[in-house]
What does this fold into?
Amino acid sequence: MFQKIRVAVIKSTRPVYLAGLMSSIFFAVGVQKIDAHAGLLARHAVYTGIFFVCLWAACRLFAGSLNRRLALEGVCSESAGDMVYTFVIYLEIIKHVVGVSFTLGWIAGVMFCWDYLGHQMFLIPAGASLAVSMVAFLVTYGIASFVDNLHWPEAEDE
It folds into this structure.
């Protein structure tokens, strides 16, 4: 029963719907604070459009990563069991949270290098930025590779 409901929801749910809903909420909340200035309203509408595009792209990327991960498990989204699907969603959320966190940390680290070492010759802050970039990349790649090697335990055939 739950399998049929989940398949129907997966087939009818599109990232554009979620992005449209969240963008509408974003626009509605922002309009409450605008005091009838046409420039602010137009600027907020542009920001809402940018927010929509970014959220739509993020939803498409997440859906694509879920399908890729389900393919690694040897199932498709329509035939995957609830536990396998939940397991795959959990692993992909972990990878995305780690990726976003280390991306923000990488940006902060590079900015710190250029702020703290910017008064010295060019190669010193550039080298420090490269070192921060390599550490962030290696840690993120290592965690993503580790999570990609985790698989749903299957029943052993005898």
Remarks:
- Residues 81-158 form one domain.
- The chain has a mean pLDDT of 83.
